[in-house]
Amino acid sequence: MRLGIDFGSRWIVAAIADRGNYPVISFEGEQAGSRQYFPALVAVQGTKRIYGWDAWSAQSDPSSSVFGATGAALPVGHGGEASAGASKLDLLFEIALALHTALDVAHLNRAASERYEVMLGIPVQAEHSQRSATVEAFLRAGFVVLGIMEEPLADSLEYRHLHEPSGSILVCHLGASLSAASIVEIHEIGPVTIASAALEHVSADYFDTALAELAWKAAGLPASAFASISPGELFSLNEECRRVREARLPSAQRFVIDLSNVVPGGKLVSVSMEAIQERWQPQLDRTIEALERLLAAYKGAIAAIYATGEGSELPFVVHRLKETFGEQVCRAANGRATTAIGLAIAAEHINEDEQYEQSYLRPHDIHAVAPFPIPNLDPEHWLAKFIQHATKQYDASGGTITLEAVSELLQQHQRAFSEDLETARRMVRTYPQLFKKT
Questions:
Q1: Could you state, in order of their start, the residue ranges of all structural domains in the chain?
Q2: pLDDT by residue (tens digit) across 246-268?
Q3: In the chain, is it the N or the C terminus that has fewer CB atoms within a 10 Å radius of its CB?
């Protein structure tokens, strides 16, 4: 069974590849409901670790420490020291294992002997260590990893599936907590990212925080008290704002938020659309400026500007984009699931014999498990320094570089290179089936 799995910093969304159809998987959610996403969280309570919706609910418990998919501690409880001895890889592995269990009970009509073959999606901002750790975590959890792809690339596949465009598109991936824009050229053999830019403070989480602050003010509660509320109360307040935002009708002009179950002395308050728009305007302005810089640097023609991710469903975001860029702008029908659907499309079209034959370093090849794209390397990584030095020699010699010069540069980084080589050998010994073609 082939799946596309969008492994975000807070949420996991999965879609199935089913003969040209790509339905989004529903998981058993909070309060016995059904959700088209699964929390990418682990909570530590004493020496016990819990996952999924149990970990999500634990954010209101001050005795818990909650970690996101990046391995970073969320602002709950007593912080990031209570990981019960777990490394970032351990936490990722346990989240992936919890996801495997959730998929098993999601009524997917899977044969007992059939394994989950997955294409993984990750944020553009993900570092080398997060990319490689995500791949290894899913392998350990029993998944067959077909490849790894950045979210805007996957979004472009979903767009191509629906619209069959030619040329380039600008993908604005506005996620729950991380957002980015990428210019993607769409070719028959697959999409290629030309340029990317991070979009700061325009995610759904930031919107919920702004709405929470306005609701607090509308209730007549002092601003100083907002700064001192407990992490658990802050989580409950943001959750109430998220719930109201997701339930909002397109014609609604107000958000009605119940603070009585959040903080002592809370009451039912309303926040007007004008108030949140005024508060949100600076973020939108900065987003527009970032997109304009990206388009100006590209100088080529853009067939469409495609808004995806949970943040694309926020009020007046797409309206503001259309005001600036016109009818080129379109919004994904299911913003939260766009990436997972694109990943499922990629998974369905991969030839099994080609899965691991492509170059390890090709940054945008959907056939390869690529733990890091070259542009996102840590500048202190030995390979980044090697590339920098080699490029200087290449430019200084008029566009050539000898094998002897390459060998000499490698010797300068011999220790770090040898450590990476040993890590690669260890992975080959651990996962021989993964590297049988290479």
A1: 164-201+280-337, 204-278, 382-438
A2: 888 888 889 999 888 777 777 89
A3: C
